[in-house]
Specification:
disordered N terminus; alpha+beta; Rossmann fold; 11 helices; seven-stranded antiparallel beta sheet; 23% helix
């Protein structure tokens, strides 16, 4: 079948720029067997081949385990937008971009911030053809303890049964959930930078886009993690942070967050042995203080959003700019505790807590310097100095100097023009690619 993606041409330059070291796009014929292989995947790349023997295959089979291939940090519904209103007798279709493949998958759903139990009447996952349309024959029903319907307790989560199906890396998948009863405020991830869809009635098994037309939304609903079973993937890398990890200001639908670029680099370098990369960034998030709009604090959510991810072996932490920004800026529409006395030393203690939590679980932590935000901020300068010194002091497992990568030469407090999205705070797609290219890949193996 030919490729039909309308966005491939738009994002091809950035894709090729990221992968100039060896990754080439490959046109892969779709088939209607057990694989979730789309005829029109926007980001599919051929895994690097590795020689194997029967003995190696047998050993690999014994090592098969679950690794996270995609994730999004759960958030409470925000007043005035759709998640606060909830759904009733509707189907939501979340479009996601997994990082690595496997021979089975499972889906995690969360009602962590809901106000009542939520019933899912039917659920499925399939390969995206274009928009809300799925590749014919690719849809698979999700079950929960053998049943097609499940009720997610208030404040709870559920995980689907394993679906035996071949999942390829870097392909678009769609999770469809039919919600027969009023859900109340929805646990969601507000900034998906992806077009997701809503339809009236039960269309969880519908592979056509017709019922979803005109109901495009920009949040992911209920879905928080997808795991794949892999014999070769080298665990999971968690990108943990705020809006700069969440990919704000990158091109919607282009999958150009720095964790996406990192996933593609790893696959180019290691093929099917690449670790999964998941993005646990939340726009506006802070190390020390949570808020109703921007999620629980990093310290509070780290155990759930980073250390509980399937197969986690390392976490890259990029956070701290909002602890200063919200605490020293004007009042915000969101409920934000403004602590004008917050200091670099306070945030350093927060970093130490994250590192200690990770090391107690045998997980490595790499601290990243805070990127420029349009002028001199003494607290951020102090934090970056501390971060750059922390590796020598053996506090963390390594330091990634994102700030130096995207800063204007001679002006370390400002984003370089080619990397500036225009708001002097968030990098653009090119900047996110540069950040990912600065990460030493051997650290993540």
């Amino acid at each position: 079948m030919p490729w039909h993606s309308s966005t491939l041409r738009a994002r091809l330059p950035g894709y090729l720029a990221c992968c100039a070291a060896g990754l080439a796009l490959s046109l892969v014929a779709a088939y209607l067997g057990p694989a979730l292989m789309p005829a029109a995947s926007r980001h599919l790349a051929r895994p690097v081949a590795h020689a194997s023997t029967a003995a190696h295959a047998s050993t690999a089979a014994s090592r098969a385990r679950w690794v996270a291939t995609w994730a999004a940090s759960p958030m409470a519904a925000t007043d005035g937008v759709l998640p606060s209103k909830g759904f009733a007798n509707q189907t939501v279709r979340d479009v996601i971009y997994p990082s690595v493949g496997g021979d089975a998958l499972r889906v995690h759903l969360s009602n962590r911030f809901g106000t009542r139990p939520v019933t899912v009447g039917a659920a499925s996952i399939g390969a995206v053809l274009d928009g809300a349309a799925l590749v014919p024959g690719s849809s698979r029903t999700l079950t929960f303890a053998g049943k097609q319907a499940v009720t997610i307790p208030r404040g709870g989560t559920v995980t689907s049964d394993a679906v035996t199906v071949t999942v390829l890396p870097l392909q678009d998948l769609a999770i469809s959930l039919f919600l027969p009863h009023a859900t109340g405020p929805v646990t969601n991830h507000l900034v998906s930078l992806q077009t997701n869809y809503i339809a009236s009635g039960d269309h969880a098994a519908d592979q056509r886009a017709t019922a979803f037309t005109g109901f495009e939304q920009a949040a992911w609903y209920f879905a928080t993690e997808v795991d794949v079973r892999s014999m070769t993937a080298d665990g999971t890398i968690v990108a943990f942070g705020d809006s700069i990890t969440d990919g704000n200001a990158s091109l919607p639908g282009a999958e150009d967050r720095w964790p996406n670029y990192l996933a593609r680099r790893l696959i180019a370098a290691y093929g099917d042995r690449a670790p999964g990369v998941v993005d646990e960034g939340i726009g506006g998030n802070r190390v020390l203080t949570g808020s109703s709009c921007f999620g629980q604090s990093a310290v509070q959510r780290f155990g759930r959003d980073a250390l509980s991810v399937a197969g986690v072996r390392a976490v890259i932490v990029l956070e701290g700019t909002n602890d200063w920004g919200f605490s020293h800026g004007p009042p915000h529409y969101c409920t934000i505790q403004q602590d004008k006395n917050v200091t670099a030393a306070d945030i350093e203690l927060g970093y130490r807590r994250l590192i200690a939590m990770a090391h107690a679980r045998g997980v490595r932590v790499y601290l990243a310097t805070i990127t420029p935000r349009g002028g001199s901020v003494p607290m951020i300068t102090a934090l970056n100095r501390w971060i750059l010194a922390s590796h020598a002091a053996r506090i963390s497992d390594g330091v990634i100097d994102f700030a130096a990568v995207v800063a204007m030469p001679g002006y370390p407090d400002r984003l370089d023009v080619p990397y500036n999205s225009g708001d002097d705070l968030h990098p653009n797609d090119l900047g996110y690619g540069a950040m990912a290219n600065a990460i030493p890949l051997p650290w993540l193996r």
